[in-house]
């Protein structure tokens, strides 16, 4: 599929990606933002596909669209008052966000433009052969990049434990509240 | 009131208009039969027959490559529309997939619903649909027509755009799965696949399937939320929890045959399985129950149909939907039943391979249409099994369902994956 230079498919994907990304930050309704995020991530997957990275595109859709956006939606349903139709978000700190985004963008552009990139021979050798990509990627994850890979999973474990601690804390607090209320009631009855 | 039937005899006399209509109709019929015969007698000498008479070849030769060669391959200002060399397989895949969706999926799902009603009726000592057409065979097509023509109600306080988009977010992933299902044998000529009964032969088939099907959850949550109805929201949350939970054991069950086969390509899976003792179900005996239980939960079939528990939630996330949008959710559900059965058959039960050895004559044939026969026979048997469970078991409670998912199915899936990997290493 890949010719020389970005073709019409790239421009189409990029246009939809940017439009939906703008939707994520400008729309006032959180659910609409989350759905726009799903479109953005889907389009990023399309860009990978357009570059012949089939495997990466598959994982992009599976993990980001299928898992992360679903989690975001469920979280919105849990934290907000779901009876409230608006579920609105504010853009009070839009200026700061814009500044940070521009700095990150400049940094990334600089790195991309000035870095020296040596493609992983094992990944690029067979062209867009997904079977070869899968094998090379798995070997890379379990051999030279084992430590970073495990560190990433440790990070996830810490996040998980943090969530448990937070939830436990609230649950305990609620339980002690209930106990106190019960005791108060008993004393009053007596 | 005037009758709606077109009458041959108006005022007791044969009218000129009806005779004219009859003549035109006869002419069209003769022309159609003539054209059909002409096409039929041209088939054996055609390029299509030579390269292998499959849908993908038909689409590639006559809908992609032939139009591309018009005007000597130069379309002037429209050249940007002409499929380039790399785009031909992509366009072929998309076009044949479209034909499969409209020509196969829609009728198949329609009659799957009929089959479900008949089977459930038989198992519950009822008769099922009997009135519309012989044996009630026209019942479901009529239901579809009814849904198509019904008024499309959007609740006043619904979120219009999300409400509109949600059925598409559920149906599109469900139909996209048909792209990679190998319906039959493939023929390899000079090292290239010339004749294949799979629309798009993706190398990442299994990953593609799980990635695509994970998107549907977003549609279900959106549908429940956009309806602005507490029952649909509760149904959507139950559905989402259930789908997310059981996606993990389902993926683990998909991974076990992948580890065994060492490929993600579904046609490769089917082609590798050879004779009945080479089918991947034998090393994956534990995978089968994990797959079936997770599939039942993913489909929301009866032991796990909490999301649409009629007595508690009216109907689940799609309460507010009517007409065609409701039909789309329904379609997606039954289409998923077919897809999951087809995937189980392809990964574990030999796909289009005949269960009998080649020495048994016609029973052992699995080329072309014979392969399709075996594929559909196995898939329909699998669907029948799913319906059987649906007719037999009572509904679980939501906490039992989640407990079963997280505390039993996922550890079992992990253990099974380890077992299959160890077996793979031992067998070599």
Give the tags.
heterodimer, A: 190 residues, mainly alpha, Four Helix Bundle (Hemerythrin (Met), subunit A), 78% helix, 0% strand, extended, B: 428 residues, 2 domains, two-stranded antiparallel sheet, 14 helices, 3% strand
Protein architecture, described:
The complex is a heterodimer of chains A (190) and B (428). Chain A is mostly helical. Chain A is 78% helix and 0% strand. Chain A has seven helices and no strands. Chain A has helices spanning 8-26, 30-50, 54-79, 94-114, 121-124, 130-142, 146-189. The model of chain A has no long low-confidence stretch (mean pLDDT 80). Chain B has helices spanning 16-42, 47-51, 55-68, 87-123, 139-149, 160-176, 205-226, 230-261, 266-272, 287-299, 310-313, 323-348, 368-392, 398-427; strands spanning 9-10, 13-14, 187-189, 192-195. In chain B, strand 3 (187-189) and strand 4 form a beta hairpin. Chain B is globular, with a radius of gyration of 25 Å. The model of chain B has no long low-confidence stretch (mean pLDDT 82). The chains are: A mainly alpha (190), B mainly alpha (428). Chains A and B meet through helix 2, helix 3 and helix 6 of A and helix 6, helix 7 and helix 8 of B.
């Amino acid at each position: 599929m890949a010719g020389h230079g970005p073709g019409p498919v790239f421009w189409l994907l990029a246009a939809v990606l940017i439009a939906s990304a703008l939707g994520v930050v400008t729309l006032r309704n959180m659910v609409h933002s989350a759905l726009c995020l799903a479109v953005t991530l889907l389009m990023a997957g399309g860009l990978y596909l357009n570059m012949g990275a089939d495997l990466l595109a598959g994982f992009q859709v599976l993990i980001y669209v299928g898992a992360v956006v679903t989690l975001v939606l469920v979280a919105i349903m849990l934290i907000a008052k779901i009876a409230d139709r608006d579920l609105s978000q504010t853009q009070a700190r839009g200026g700061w966000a814009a500044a940070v985004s521009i700095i990150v963008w400049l940094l990334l552009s600089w790195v991309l433009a000035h870095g020296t990139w040596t493609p992983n021979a094992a990944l690029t050798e067979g062209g867009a052969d997904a079977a070869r990509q899968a094998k090379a990627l798995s070997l890379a994850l379990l051999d030279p990049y084992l430590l970073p890979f495990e560190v990433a999973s440790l990070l996830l474990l810490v996040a998980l434990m943090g969530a448990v601690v937070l939830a436990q804390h609230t649950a305990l607090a609620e339980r002690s509240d209930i106990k106190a209320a019960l005791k108060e009631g008993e004393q009053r009855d007596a | 009131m005037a009758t709606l039937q077109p009458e041959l005899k108006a005022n007791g006399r044969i009218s000129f208009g009806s005779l004219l209509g009859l003549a035109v109709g006869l002419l069209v019929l003769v022309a159609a039969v003539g054209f059909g015969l002409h096409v039929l007698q041209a088939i054996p000498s055609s390029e299509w027959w030579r390269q292998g008479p499959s849908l993908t070849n038909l689409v590639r030769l006559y809908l992609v490559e032939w139009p591309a060669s018009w005007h000597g391959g130069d379309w002037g200002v429209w050249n940007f529309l002409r499929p380039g060399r790399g785009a031909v397989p992509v366009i072929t895949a998309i076009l044949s997939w479209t034909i499969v969706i409209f020509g196969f999926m829609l009728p198949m799902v329609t009659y799957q619903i009929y089959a479900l009603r008949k089977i459930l009726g038989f198992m519950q000592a009822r008769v099922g649909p009997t009135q519309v057409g012989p044996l009630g065979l026209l019942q479901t097509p009529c239901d579809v027509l009814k849904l198509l023509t019904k008024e499309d109600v959007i609740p006043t306080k619904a979120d219009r755009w999300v409400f509109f988009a949600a059925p598409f977010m559920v149906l599109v992933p469900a139909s996209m799965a048909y792209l990679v299902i190998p319906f039959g044998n493939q023929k390899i000529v000079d090292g290239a696949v010339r004749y294949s009964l799979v629309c798009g032969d993706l190398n990442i088939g299994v990953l593609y399937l799980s990635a695509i099907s994970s998107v549907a959850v977003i549609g279900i949550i959106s549908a429940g939320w956009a309806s602005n109805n507490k029952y649909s929201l509760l149904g959507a949350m139950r559905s989402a929890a259930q789908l997310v939970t059981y996606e993990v054991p389902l993926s683990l069950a998909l991974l076990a045959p992948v580890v065994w086969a060492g490929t993600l390509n579904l046609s490769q899976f089917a082609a590798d399985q050879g004779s009945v003792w080479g089918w991947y179900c034998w090393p994956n005996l534990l995978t089968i129950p994990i797959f079936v239980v997770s599939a039942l939960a993913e489909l929301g079939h009866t032991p796990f149909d909490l999301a649409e528990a009629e007595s508690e939630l009216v109907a689940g996330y799609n309460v507010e939907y009517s007409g065609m949008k409701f039909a789309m959710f329904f379609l997606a559900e039954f289409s998923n039943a077919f897809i999951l059965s087809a995937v189980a058959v392809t990964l574990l039960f030999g796909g289009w391979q005949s269960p009998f050895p080649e020495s048994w004559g016609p029973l052992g044939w699995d080329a072309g249409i014979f392969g399709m026969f075996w594929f559909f026979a196995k898939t329909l048997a699998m669907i029948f099994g799913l319906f059987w469970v649906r007719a037999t078991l009572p509904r679980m409670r939501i906490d039992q369902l989640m407990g079963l998912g997280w505390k039993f199915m996922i550890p079992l899936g992990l253990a099974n994956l380890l077992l299959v990997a160890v077996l793979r290493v031992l067998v070599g």
